Amino acid sequence: MRGAAVGLLAALGTVSLGAPALAEIKIGLTISNTGPAAALGVPEMKAIQLLPTEVAGEKITWIPLDDGSDPTKSAANARKLIAEDSIDALVGSTITPASIPLIDIVSEAKLPLIAINPATAMVEPQDAKRRWVFKVPPNTNIMVSTVLKHMQQTGVKTLATFVFSVRLWPDLVDRRQAARRPIWPQGGRW
Q1: Helices 169-183 and 140-153, interaxial angle, to 10°?
Q2: pTM to 2 decimal places
Q3: Which of 12, 65, 82, 115 is 20 to 30 A away from residue 150, measured at CA?
């Protein structure tokens, strides 16, 4: 979350250098503060209190909404933030299922989305809709590849997975199939 804010502020700050403040910058956030992903969303929601309210003389207003880890609520939050609050950018959501619907919404509104979940589906395939999405964490396949490489280096031979997001599973399965031979060439198993 902090990385998303820093990246967004850096981008916004460079736009405003040398220019007088024209209006406040409004950033909407849809976060899973409740529901199945609350363990991730609660700290994200609390981190909003630490974000600056002014950068380079520009006033910034953060408008957080709870999506309850629900894709329908996340989409409703995004629409509300765009229509009623006239946000300049959107941040969210905590989990992939609540984030995927945001792609179409920000594309229609031509509004930047700072994605804070690692799902590769947020930015790939890189098409006209996803050109509005900027993702802070590395893609899932990069993280899985790094974990598998570390496991190989430390001699781990067996791995069990528990995935609660059906949208995340294809990233893991694709990476596992691609990595199986080079990671476990001598009898390791998945």
Answers
A1: 30
A2: 0.74
A3: 115
Q: Can you give the residue ranges of every domain in the chain?
A: 2-135, 140-183
Measuring CA to CA, which residue among 155, 123, 152 is closest to residue 140?
123
* Mean pLDDT of all residues in 142-155: 86
Which residue carries 């691609």 as its tokens?
178
**pLDDT tens-place string over residues 89-145:** 999 999 989 999 999 999 999 999 999 988 888 998 899 999 999 999 888 778 878
How many DSSP H helices and E strands does the chain contain?
6, 6
2-135 is a CATH 3.40.50.300 domain = no
For residue 92, what are the β-bridge partners? 30
Tokens 């006209």, located at residue: 128
Check: CB of residue 126 under 8 Å from CB of residue 139: no
Task: Please tell me what DSSP assigns to residue 30.
Answer: E
